Amino acid sequence: MDALLTTTGLFKRFGGVVAASGVSLSLRPGEIRGLIGPNGAGKTTLVNLITGIYGPSGGDIRFRGESLVGLAPHQIARRGLLRSFQVCRLFGNLSVAENLLVADLARGAHAFAETRQRAARARELLDITNLARLADQPAKALSGGQRALLQVACGFMVPELRCYVLDEPFAGINPVIKDAIVELIRQANEQRGIAFLIVSHEMPVMRRLCHGVSVLMDGHIVSEGTLDEVAAHPQVIAAYLGKSWA
Amino acid sequence: MPARLTGHAGALRDAAFALPVVLLLAAMPLVTGAYLLHVLTITLYYVILAASWNLLAGYTGQFSLAQQSFAAVGAYGSGLLIKYFAFPLWASIPCGVVAAALLGWLLGRMVLRMHTIYLAIATWAFAETIHIVLTAAYQITRGELGLSVPALYSNVRPEAYYYTFLGLASASLLLMHLLIRSPLGYFMRAIRDDELRAESMGIDTTRVKVMVFTLSSAFAGLAGAFYAHYTIVLSPQMADFGEMAKLIIMVVVGGLGSFMGPLIGAPPVQIAMTYLARYGEWDMVIFALIVIVLMRTTIGGIVPLAGRAWSRLRPRRGTA
Fold first, then answer.
1. Whole-model pTM?
2. Are A197 and A205 in contact (CB under 8 A)?
3. How far, in Å, CA of B20 to CA of B28, rounded?
4. Is B201's CB within 8 Å of A82's CB?
5. How much is the pLDDT for B76?
6. Domain range spanning residue A164?
7. Does residue B195 lie in a domain region?
8. A138 in reach of chain B (CB within 8 A)
9. pLDDT above 80 (res B208)
């Protein structure tokens, strides 16, 4: 099967610091891929490169056969590749419902007239996420977990979504909301065939969700496979437990 | 269905508020004298100007300090076309508006990647440039001597001008209201809250910001062009930073980022400033202190304060 998203020899330098050093990664349509690695490995830099926040210093990123290099983040989003942020970002003064509506309107002018479909999608997501009773509340009034849930849910308002890059979606939230996010991801993957690239340190959740895992260290991929396979890799053991364990 | 998914509840509430206010204002000439009517006419000019700045600063988070310049461009644009090219009024006023909009577009393009203090400084420098050009190019603009322009009407009855400005303000505010409730309005508020998130969701933030700069400048230019043909003598004072400070005070007193803010804030500030003018610059000192208090506390202006009071009262009414 043709890859949905590929990065080839992706390179990013910030002054003297090399944050991505030839990252090559491939994601199939409908695949849920985990991206793990120690702090400072370059995971968020990779997410920022894929989604156009940073321009690469070298290499290529292709999505559905088209190069994303040089495109602005909004152009990448409109091609069906969305992201969430590690530090939760929402439109705080907009209500919960309006956050969902904006995600849909942002698809472009063709979406403006789809009022009924938009309201139906928002209502469905509000019910699934159990945020319906808070729909008219400003997003800044939500708890940390609810904010994380809403941030992820916003992406599912977009019918053209093909690949969702989630940066630490489970960090610092309680098990109930964690399960709700896992359920959202699983449903979207099974029912809509959406592919996910999930950056996380939550190994039990990654084990439940991911078809495969890539390990990023010092700006490049050192191992790929199932979670058990990569956990046996000496470099991964050394990175997580120290060199004496490897 | 939550009200925010349909938007009907907010639109009805706003219409229910606007209609009696417009009717009350329309009845003002019946109960006021010529001087107060003049003060109210000038107030309506400031309402349009303050509301146009609120689109930019309050709704989109672009803290520009050049709004008064666009009013001056609209005014001088219309006046100079009449003086040098004998344009008729019906053509010179739209040309003034287009000139302001084009300049707004240009400024929007120039400050695209600027935020916070950098944006404020760049727009302030732009406004000062306009002010200096209007003053220094006195061979063309007559500088501080003042540029005489024809009046809008051949008679000098204040009622005619009052109703003109009331119509102009009502139409401008209606258009702004429609804009805020449109998808563009949602994008503006999204950019204000988190530009990076907005961009990552698919919003072309560059395009939205330039559009808002252009539209906001067009509204200011429209107000300025009509103001020119009401006051009939133009001075570069119109582009002075003091005018911008006045707009900021009006919007902040009313409530930055709320539609009703400039409408509620502009009249008391303008009326008070008119009557405090006999004490020189002290009026600005008094209002500057009010702004500092509003910024230091979480009051946030008259409209947000009233909103919070209303939401506290509502449950009590329900349980009574």
1. 0.89
2. no
3. 12
4. yes
5. 97
6. 5-89+160-245
7. yes
8. no
9. yes
Interface residue A157 vs chain B (CB under 8 A): no
Q: Return the pLDDT at A108.
A: 81
Flag whether B12 is in a domain: no
Structure tokens at B82: 């009449």
CA B119 to chain centre: 19
Main-chain phi, psi angles of A115, to 5 degrees: -60, -45
Q: What is the CATH number of the domain that holds A48?
A: 3.40.50.300
> What is the domain-level CATH number for residue B193?
1.10.3470.10
How large is the average pLDDT for residues B158-179? 94
Q: Does A112 touch chain B (CB under 8 A)?
A: yes
Answer whether A42's CB lies under 8 Å from A118's CB.
no
CA gap A178, B319 in Å, rounded: 37
In a domain, A114, yes or no: no
Q: How many CB atoms lie within 10 A of CB B126?
A: 19
> Is residue A32 within a helix (H) or strand (E), and if so which, with residue range?
strand A32-36
User: How far, in Å, CA of B70 to CA of B224, rounded?
Assistant: 8
For B166, the domain range is 32-239
pLDDT of residue A243: 62
Q: How many domains does chain A have?
A: 1
Question: Do the Cβ atoms of A158 and B202 come within 8 Å?
Answer: yes
Instruction: Say whether A61 sits in a helix, a strand or coil.
Output: strand
CB contact under 8 A, A74 and B183: no
